Amino acid sequence: MTARVDSPIPIPHRLETVRAYKSRGGRIAAVLPIHYPRALLRAFDILPVELWGPPQVDATRGSAHLQPYVCSIVRNALAYLLSGGLDLADLIVVPHTCDSLQGFASILIDFIHPTQPVLWIYLPRGNHAGNVAFLADEFRALYRRLAEITNRAPSDAELLESNRREESADARLADLHRQRGALPPTVVEFYRLVRSREYLPAETFIEIAERVGGLSTLPPRGSAHDRLPLGKIPLLLSGIIPEPMGIFDALDRLNAVVVADDFAGCGRRLYPPGKSDDPFERMAERILAAPPDSTRGSAIQERLQHLLRLAQTSGAKGIVFYDVKFCEPELFYLPALRKGLQDAGIPSLVIEIDLSDPLSQQVLTRLEAFLEMIA
Amino acid sequence: MTVDICALGIDVGSTTVKIVGVDAAGNLAWHFLDQAGPRVEDQVDEFLARARQAAGKPDNLPLVATGYGRGLVHQATRKVTEITCHARGIYREFQHGGTLVDIGGQDSKVIGIGPKGDVVDFAMNDKCAAGTGRFLENSARHLRVPLERIGSVALSTTEEVVISSTCTVFAESEIISLIAHGVAVEPILRGLHRSLIKRIVAMVRTVGLVSPLMLSGGVAQNPAICRMLEEETESKVILPREPQLMGAHGAALMALGMGWSVLTPASGET
Amino acid sequence: MSAADSLRFYAGVNLGCAALRLNRWRAERTAPRRQSEYLAPPLKISPRTKELIARHYLEGRYANGHRKVAWVASGAPVELLKALDFYVLYPENHAALCGTARAVEEIATEAEHAGYSRDICSYARTDLGAMLSGKTPVGRLPKPDLLLACTNICQTVLFWYRVLAHHFDVPLIVIDTPFIYTEATDHAAEYVKRQMEESIPIAEKVAGKKLDERRLKETTRLSKMASQLWLEIMERGRHRPAPISVFDQFIQMAPIVEMRGDAFTVDFYAAMLKEVEGRIARGIGAVKNEKKRLLWDNLPIWYRLRYLGEFLGARGVAIVASTYTNAWGELAPMIDPEHPMESGARTYLHPILNRGTGYKLATMKRMVVDYGLDGAILHNDRSCKPYSVGQIDQRDRLLREHHVPALLLEADHNDPRAFSEEQAANRLEAFVEMLGV
Predict the structure, then answer these.
(1) This prediction's pTM
(2) Nearest Cα residue in chain B from A363
(3) Count of the separate structural domains present in chain C
(4) What ipTM was assigned to the predicted interfaces of this complex?
(5) Which domain holds residue C180?
């Protein structure tokens, strides 16, 4: 992710951020998708750096351990690890997001034995009264393991402070999403910015987000709907993560603009502030109150209502489900969601990609045909 | 003797390239077709030269390009996907909506067309040869049956062998094994056609079948395809006069300015 | 619940059961039509197995309106619902039945045509296809009044049941069982117990009655007894020759999965154990000329059981143990009928599918030693990521570290379109040669 020379928003690269953090004595955690407690890691002076692929790595080494029907997010992560890509990481954190990540963490622990410790977090599914308590306990267990690894023991006050900082960063992130139509960057720059939350320390992200937010041509409480770019076809994008990022250039060339997003890595991680005074409960509350997500097994109606609301408030004329191939959580929901959307007059398109392949002609043709259809 | 050509549409497919000229009323006035050459730009230049000669006009006529290779046609005023162009072309011919099945050499698609000719939904099989003309081509080669006869040979028997392989390449080993076991060519061919049709029908069901079912593309001329599609969908299948030219005709209509209103002015070319 | 529905239930079921009893009586007195050259005939109890399964679906056919119906995932704590008199249906069992009946392609395509990708579990596609079209080889499936899913076998089951809940518009109870990478934590067990407790009022509301504590203990006790008997039956496979093969087990496991908690299931497995011991006494082996003994890992290939049994049997190879069938017996010691909720929470956390890849390997290794096995076939099941992910490393280790020949066999448990007979036969042939038969 490079920052353009003439871009108004210089964003530090992933690698330079990692090096700078380490040189100040901090540690790095390579974190797999999707939901995890940033505040907890930062309280131990560990910077979480998320691993979404990365795209376009040679997946061969991953294929030596994982079957072809395991998605490319997981397969690429393994390939990257095995070819030294995570050598700067001091630990690896794997949230239990799906059966594939379950298997990934398990084979790391049981067979691959990376030099870094592998830590897991189980995320509760379903709507149970005991969810917050359980997740808080998972975080306490994680705390104990982090304490062993780092020889630190942050106090509750320190944990709450760390959490406050993350809540502040997430508030800025939510602002950016709301203001997206009125911000100076192009769509691809917007995503580079919001995705920098995947690795930037919260305080750095807050600084950049405030600078960019100040450039908005909208009054603070305005919505992007007020500034729908004329003549461009407004779309809502949904999926796990916007990779390949080439989709944004393609949409730009095809005269479309992304006005809202429902990516598991982006829009579905707009965590609201917590309520509890107990830091672990507060961290748990935030994640459990995130928008409906297929990987957390939300009810279909909840997902549908969420998409309809998003489409309505953003003025999107169509939805593109931009999914990584083999993603079972996503695939189970699609038919019912598409039917519900269709009944509400919102057409949708499904595209499945592999992180290691550039966007194919076939995919571009489908996008083009879809836009011709809804224009 | 020159032909009245006012606009051109070119469909650059992976196996064949087709060009259509329409008159002022949008009727198909002239066409030309050839195997796809290695250099698209040169081939398009040749095609355009032919068109100018046929029309007796030295100037450039408005041209819309569609098909797999449309991105390389720099001579075109606009590039439009084969989905939209096929829908335009078929609607021009039949003047009603329905479900269009287009089976090409290297891809296949199903397009739901509304009563006013608009594209309502579409599905494309462009990842897997098993749903395309290539599947039959390969098989024909293996069974040593001329490609233009595989349909009639398949229909010459009522016996049918089930081909279970999902993959074209594995289907080849299945065919070899069947022949080794003494199974006749005709039931194998019939089974292969059935296999292809089943994939097509899956796409039809995804888009939703709205009668009538219309068939286009090179493979449309295969009588077994038509018959089996009717069997599997229990719906009548109708063919346009020139099944292979639907995309190019639709593109020509767009060049002429018909059915153009739905597309916004271009702000960036592919 | 209407009187007419109840009448229909009694009439239909009684008449049907009478017919089924007659069929069984006849079948018990006729020699099997197909006598295999290489394999022992099916167990004498098999007509009874068929009768139980058929009776189960027969009751289902008339259940709506007479009994409350629950659709349940195979690893779920079903004892709660049985104690509340629910008629319990297992979509996974029904799907497997469609697999053996070669009906999957037709039924799954209904789901695929509705937009469900072929990349999702073939059990789910079969079930959703049956839900959408009503097609089933068992006559008619009852609609659910309640759904119960448990994530101890996979996460897929959760998404699948969300779809069912959306379609049928009935309550869905999710028992979320945290995955055990190394050991189960106390807070995980507490979490599961709490969910089970919270599910009781929901189930009671649908059932229209209160849960009787004694009834629950009794049902749990019967579950434990049946599971223990099943475990003993499987352990008899240690004998040479093994009296039954896993192919027998795949068929005979139906009652332990779908009728666990009933008294007749205990009697059934007690009778089966007796018959199996009888075979041992007479030296009868499942494979007549047993030369090599193998382990089967992962789900069965439902639509090719006979083919695989015959193929291997003809070469003197018997598959005598399986991590899959073992799953329904190995946790029997954990069940404590006096503390059904507490022990239930622990038990339902510990199925092999809820445990790490290392534990799965350790299980395979232990079974190789316990049963005196010569090798293992790991079914690389495209539809089952929790079971299949890790197999490449497991196979590698079996081979290199434990010197156990192991074959990775690519297929799918229910979808015949993902199975290539040519390729599979080739690999099995080569593997058998490698075993030195």
Answers:
(1) 0.90
(2) B126
(3) 1
(4) 0.95
(5) 3-434
